From TrEMBL:
CDD domains: GATase1_PB (cd01749). In the presence of PdxS, forms a dodecamer of heterodimers. Only shows activity in the heterodimer. This is Pyridoxal 5'-phosphate synthase subunit PdxT. It comes from Streptomyces bambusae. The gene is pdxT. Belongs to the glutaminase PdxT/SNO family.
Length: 197
């Protein structure tokens, strides 16, 4: 793929704008995705941070749940941050009873594992496959990965908890690189998208 890849940001809820900006600085063409027709037109997708219970509800309401699941199953590259990570987990803990996920990574993710809003924090995170020193991790009511299956690769940990995972074309982080102005994680994802084309 010589042309810049077209990467959508799921725009049902959450910090969509920040991801659009980060993707653009990582040399992708970025656009919001709300409807199945828009999803069909992108090479890859970012699922932003926000509130996964709301995102799940809106995905059902907008008729996006099955189209999203289908694209992920078909191998579309996808990157989820925080609530987005929850959406990409095959299984979640401390979710709402009727909460749906797309799945994609053989992992169990615990919602709000790092605590509530007032327990948000930043930390330097060593990220496998990203050069130039640790990335700044912004954790806001962040989940962690309680366990990962054999096919998922752990890319980062914080205080013994898994906070970044990749399985094939699916990438997920507990934290929010889109809020830091450091676009290296987005560039890593854009490289994944180019490699899968
Ligand atoms: N705790 C939120 C949820 O369950 C995620 C928070 C975030 O995305 N910053 O979806």
């Amino acid at each position: 793929m010589n042309n810049p890849p077209v990467i959508g940001v799921l725009a049902l809820q959450g910090d969509v704008r920040e991801h659009l900006i980060a993707l653009a600085s990582a040399d992708a063409v970025a656009r919001p995705v709300r409807r199945p027709e828009e999803l069909a037109e992108v090479d890859a997708l970012v699922i932003p941070g926000g509130e996964s219970t709301t995102m799940s509800k809106l995905a059902v309401l907008f008729g996006m749940l099955e189209p999203l699941r289908e694209r992920v199953r078909a191998g579309m590259p996808v990157y989820g941050t925080c609530a987005g990570m929850i959406m990409l987990a095959d299984k979640i803990l401390d979710g709402r009873e009727d909460q749906e996920t797309l799945g994609g990574v053989d992992m169990i993710v615990r919602r709000n594992a790092f605590g509530r809003q007032n327990e948000s924090f930043e930390a330097k995170i060593d990220f496998a496959g990203i050069d130039g020193g640790p990335v700044e991790g912004v954790f806001i009511r962040a989940p962690w990965v309680e366990s990962v299956g054999a096919s998922a690769e752990v890319l980062a940990e914080y205080e013994g908890h898994v906070v970044a995972v990749r399985q094939g074309n699916v990438l997920a982080t507990s934290f929010h690189p889109e809020l830091t102005g450091d676009e290296r994680v987005h560039a890593y994802f854009v490289d994944m998208v180019r490699a899968s084309a």
